[in-house]
């Protein structure tokens, strides 16, 4: 007598349907995270440029800094922002972040010891941690990436 053979498992149709649904969910998640990555990249770029201005000031014994108007920013050299050199790897003086990323207006300069100041003439030293908040909006939510400049040392973590 032959026994009925019972098989268990998923059909090919069930597996394919599950993979399609999983793929759609992952695509939506990646699109949501993409905006988050853009703001992190811009914040990292600004951090690198702040460190660059500080290292140039310490290396040349001449004040260097960055001035941001909110829509764009640029490097400056000398007290009072006398000269405007370009950042490494860039051909234009002013850098404009993507339009969906908001950068605050600020001026930061560094003296020959790397000490940060709130102005280009180095009259006002930063005496408390300075936080620059970059923001963007994604799916109705505001995403913020902060950059901190430590007083006295000018360290940008």
Radius of gyration: 25 Å
- Helix and strand pattern: HEEEEEE
| Sheet with the most strands, sense and barrel status | 4 strands, antiparallel
Main CATH class = Alpha Beta
CATH fold node name? minor pseudopilin epsh fold
Organism: Desulfovibrio ferrophilus
InterPro entries: N_methyl_site, Pilin-like
Keywords: Membrane, Transmembrane, Transmembrane helix
Pfam family, one: N_methyl
Label this structure with key terms.
157 residues, alpha+beta, minor pseudopilin epsh fold, four-stranded antiparallel β-sheet, two-stranded antiparallel sheet, 31% helix
What does this protein structure show overall?
- By secondary structure, the protein is α+β, with helices and mostly antiparallel strands.
- It has one domain (35-149): 3-Layer(bab) Sandwich (minor pseudopilin epsh fold).
- It has one helix and six strands, in the order H-E-E-E-E-E-E.
- The protein has a four-stranded antiparallel β-sheet with strand order 2-1-3-4, with helices on one face. It has a two-stranded antiparallel sheet with strand order 5-6.
- A hairpin with a 2-residue loop joins strand 5 and strand 6.
- It is elongated, with a radius of gyration of 25 Å.
Brief description of this entry?
Helix content is 31%, strand content 22%. With 157 residues, the protein is α+β, with helices and mostly antiparallel strands. It starts with 11 loop residues before the first helix and ends in an 8-residue tail after the last strand.
């Amino acid at each position: 007598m032959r026994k009925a053979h019972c098989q268990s498992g998923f059909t090919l149709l069930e597996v394919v349907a599950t993979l399609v649904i999983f793929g759609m969910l992952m695509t939506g998640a990646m699109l949501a995270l993409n905006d988050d990555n853009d703001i992190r990249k811009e914040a990292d770029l600004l951090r690198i440029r702040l460190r660059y201005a500080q290292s140039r000031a310490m290396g040349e014994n001449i004040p260097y800094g960055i001035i941001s108007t909110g829509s764009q920013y640029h490097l400056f050299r000398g007290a009072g922002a006398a000269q405007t050199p370009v950042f490494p790897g860039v051909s234009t003086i002013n850098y404009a972040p993507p339009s969906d990323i908001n950068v605050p207006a600020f001026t930061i300069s560094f003296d020959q010891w790397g000490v940060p100041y709130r102005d280009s003439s180095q009259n006002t030293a930063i005496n408390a941690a300075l936080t620059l908040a970059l923001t963007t909006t994604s799916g109705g939510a505001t995403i913020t990436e902060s950059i901190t400049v430590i007083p006295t040392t000018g360290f940008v973590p």
